[in-house]
Backbone:
């Protein structure tokens, strides 16, 4: 595939900025699928395939609007958004113009879908509420922090590049493409490194993010990068699964591979470190597995489920092992109030909290996860168990908790108290008939949030959908289907637990019968 004009311009720009890209890599620019990186020859584990000076990264430290950003007291995602919008406003005069021309105006994240699309395509999914809240919060950020900048006469910003739509667009690029560089630069846009596509738990190349503390920078001179706004639900920063490693030198090698295996304790590493005190002046992309000629070279954005991938990167993956479905505590209370009084429900949830339990917490919601395999979070089973306790058992437990000297010590005996002499407390012991029935009801209530269409309807719609022409519909259906399949697995989990209880009761009856008959032999 011949390089497009913008890719050729980007390569020339990389060379002018001191960005070194291996001759073994091909930068592909496909109109339908976008940018990707492929191997022009066999790559081996340990090959250093790119070296990127930190000065070539677009950060709040390196951009042309640094003075404005510092004067406004902006940092983190807000500061980087201003930097990106400002460089775009400069057009070809921007030091990053060829790089910015390579990027889309915005990524197709739900953040920039219309409100109608969000409501129709994401209804019932983990993203529906989160995206609607994001839109409100990001608009408030723009109104409070970006809009006032346009009134500053000393900087004379072009309003046509700092509109609300430009801010949302910048947010999508930063959410999907930024990397943590180091303590000094914080997060930034890293040319070349952000061209690699994602593959869950199967990356080929690793971006080394050096983050040691530089003695040459005073604490007052550092801007701590805040968490990327409104992504609290789904791992706010790029998941760094590997420990950062020092940047070493690179030597030219044969067979068209521009860089050699990593050297240990390289002398040129000391030269790099001199630029930023103890911070190396460049970043590296290093192969962590062998890749055959012609294959695409993948990075990973972390171990993320489809909700997180769609939220932050605009795509999903089939059979993603990191998928989850959440059951909100609010939904649990709604179920409880359909059976019991408000007073009883509140008292029992309060006792559950006294025992030191809680669900997962994100922003203003508390929830319980159901894993890819359909297993519910054990805290959900515990709260259901307490909500369903007979009155006498509940009062005994409440009294025991109140009388306990140390809650942690009693929590260790909780299973002993509830399960008649056995301290074992796990999903099997908690999944009695009533808890199983309650869990099924909650799964059905959760399923109703998707509307009237069935899982089979969604699967048929996905088969008719074009992932390129109907990208939003395709990935929203993928998310719905992956979540609904987890709910199906949870139903199977409840059914399996019921069968296990029946087998145990049958085994106990056989044992009692044999004991009464004087047979103490081993039961088969």
Residues:
């Amino acid at each position: 595939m011949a390089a497009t004009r913008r890719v050729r311009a980007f390569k020339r720009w990389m060379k002018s900025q001191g960005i070194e890209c291996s001759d073994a890599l091909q930068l592909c620019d496909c109109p339908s699928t976008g940018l990707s990186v492929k191997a022009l020859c066999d790559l081996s584990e340990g090959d250093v395939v790119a070296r990127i000076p930190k000065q070539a990264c677009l950060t709040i430290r390196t951009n042309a609007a640094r003075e404005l950003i510092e004067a406004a007291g902006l940092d983190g995602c807000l500061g980087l958004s201003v930097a990106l919008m400002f460089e775009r406003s400069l057009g070809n005069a921007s030091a990053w113009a060829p790089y910015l021309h390579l990027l889309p105006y915005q990524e197709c994240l739900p953040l920039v879908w219309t409100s109608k699309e969000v409501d129709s395509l994401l209804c019932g999914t983990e993203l529906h509420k989160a995206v609607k809240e994001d839109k409100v919060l990001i608009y408030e950020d723009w109104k409070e922090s970006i809009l006032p900048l346009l009134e500053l006469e000393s900087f004379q910003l072009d309003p046509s590049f700092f509109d609300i739509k430009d801010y949302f667009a910048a947010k999508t690029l930063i959410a999907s493409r930024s990397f943590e560089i180091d303590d000094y630069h914080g997060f930034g846009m890293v040319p070349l490194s952000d061209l690699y596509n994602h593959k869950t738990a199967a990356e080929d190349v690793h971006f080394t993010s050096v983050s040691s503390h530089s003695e040459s920078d005073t604490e007052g001179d550092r801007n701590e990068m805040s968490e990327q706004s409104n992504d609290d639900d789904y791992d706010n920063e790029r998941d760094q699964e590997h420990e950062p490693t020092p940047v070493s030198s690179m030597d030219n090698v044969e067979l068209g591979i521009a860089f050699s295996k990593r050297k240990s304790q390289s002398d040129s590493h000391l030269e790099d470190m001199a630029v930023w005190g103890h911070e190396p002046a460049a970043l590296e992309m290093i192969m962590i597995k062998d890749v055959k000629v012609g294959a695409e070279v993948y990075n990973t954005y972390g171990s993320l489920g489809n909700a997180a991938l769609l939220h932050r990167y605009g795509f999903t993956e089939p059979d993603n092992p990191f998928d989850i479905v959440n059951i909100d505590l609010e939904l649990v209370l709604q179920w409880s109030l359909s059976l019991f009084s408000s007073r009883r429900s509140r008292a029992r949830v309060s006792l559950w909290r006294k025992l030191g339990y809680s669900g997962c917490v994100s922003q203003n919601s508390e929830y319980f996860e159901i894993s890819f395999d359909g297993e519910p979070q054990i805290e959900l089973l515990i709260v259901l168990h307490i909500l369903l306790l007979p009155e006498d058992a509940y009062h005994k437990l409440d009294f025991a908790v109140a009388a306990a000297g140390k809650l942690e010590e009693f929590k260790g005996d909780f299973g002993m108290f509830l399960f008649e002499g056995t301290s074992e407390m796990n999903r099997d012991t908690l999944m009695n008939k009533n808890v199983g029935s309650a869990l099924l009801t909650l799964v059905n209530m959760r399923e109703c949030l998707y509307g009237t269409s069935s899982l089979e309807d969604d699967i048929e719609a996905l088969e008719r959908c074009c992932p390129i022409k109907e990208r939003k519909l395709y990935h929203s259906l993928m998310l719905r289907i992956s979540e609904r399949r987890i709910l199906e697995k949870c139903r199977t989990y409840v059914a399996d637990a019921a069968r296990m209880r029946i087998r145990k009761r049958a085994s106990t009856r056989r044992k009692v019968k044999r004991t009464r008959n004087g047979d103490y032999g081993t039961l088969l």
In short: The longest strand covers residues 25-30. The radius of gyration is 28 Å.
